[in-house]
Here is the input.
Amino acid sequence: MDILATIWQIIWILLLLAVATGSVILLAALFHPLRFDLKLRGSVKGQRAEVWFVYLFRTLRIGIIATPHTQDVVISFLGWKKRLERMTRRKPVAPPHDSPPSAPPVAAGDVTSKTSSEEPTDNLAAEAVSKPVEPPDFSAADATKTDQAQPEPEKAVEAEQTREPAAPVTISEAATDAARPETKESAPAAIDEAETIEPVAVAGQPDAPVDTRPLKPLNEVEEEYRAAKSAETVTPEPQSGAGKQGASLKQLLRKFKRDASRRFSQVKGYLRLFRRKWRALSPVFKRFWQRGKKGFGLPRLDLLLRYALHEPYLTGMSHATLAVASGMVGQWGINFVPIPHFGAPMLYSKAWVTGVIRPWRLVFATGALLFEKQLYLELWQLFKWYRAKKQH
Here is the structure.
């Protein structure tokens, strides 16, 4: 039993220590402000930026240090500093300029061997150039061919005289009648056969009934024709493809117009409801903002600028303008200090911004908002409106 009592006392003491530690941390987190420091520095040579989160009277610091080519994550506690991570960016390398390829070096022995191997070919080319080329003689061959192709004029005239005119071909009527003996006899026979053809009755097929009604008079037929035409004009004709497309477009436009009007009425109703709720709740939100805006602050906002232009009188004119601007921005708590230099052209700037967040102010503003009676009344009315809309 003594052992159990001792263990229970130890557990109780540990629970009390945990609760006390948690309450202290909670109170420190609520009442100790959170501080953020932003440091910027820039010149012609380069830039540097630092963002620090400072807590517990600057004993704990976590920051990010960025330069054009590196980015470090650093932690500092009671003066002890350690770099947690580093990211680097390489400088862009310019591509090399294109240069024509140089010829490979050639040894003296190679040159002599090439010249000696090329000499015979050069001699042959020289001999070929020195000897003139004679064109071939085609006159004798052409003459023999033409003599063989063209006959003598006397023989040609004798051949023309030996030819006799051909006798005309005549076709007698008897031959034509003999050639076509069957056509004249078959034509009347075919006509007689066509005239004497009789219908053949098919077994099993009933005879068609014969309409024995007398013919209608002409005036009654005309009246029926007019009535049929009027009925055709009254009945709607089937729509073509273009007509169906036009009708479908009209239906789509009507549907779009109907949906747009319904949506517009819905949006207008929502805007009217929002305006009514805003009028009722705007005093509540204003009080919340008045209490909560004290939880944020910019206690330090310093801007330093050192500059020099290429002419002293231009530097003086610019400083006059910047001095007026520094006085104007001072109304918003900005400490802008321009410093001119009348020497070589230069530019150096530095900024220090400190932001503070006070959590207990935010907690107090939120607690005061929860005790606003008007907020709950408007929320209840909004819930009833939503329930009635869902039921419909």
